[in-house]
Design a protein that fits this description.
This protein is mostly helical and 83 residues long. It has one domain. The protein is built from two helices and no strands. The longest helix has 36 residues. It is elongated. The N and C termini lie far apart (43 Å).
Length: 83
């Protein structure tokens, strides 16, 4: 049963990791664009980083899907506001 608890923890952690990766991907892409406009070779490396992070993001999403999707964090309540 211990393994299931660990997998449940993973189902809570993965969405946070995915969100964190998305933040990095956006930041890398922004800096790649800035480096590109400056004619810097750094834009090539940053483009490679965006591609690698995007691939990692897809792998994390696949793991989450294989585990049955996300679980809410214990004690975490979502409040939805509708206008």
């Amino acid at each position: 049963m211990s393994e299931m608890k660990e997998l449940d923890k993973l189902r809570v952690l993965l969405p946070h990791w995915i969100e964190h990766n998305q933040s990095h991907i956006a930041e890398f892409a922004k800096w790649r664009e800035l480096a590109s406009t400056e004619g810097s070779i750094a834009s090539v490396g940053l483009a490679e980083a965006v591609a690698a992070m995007t691939k990692a993001d897809a792998a994390l999403r696949e793991v989450l899907s294989q585990l049955g999707g996300s679980l809410p964090a214990p004690g975490h309540h979502h409040h939805h506001h509708h206008d």
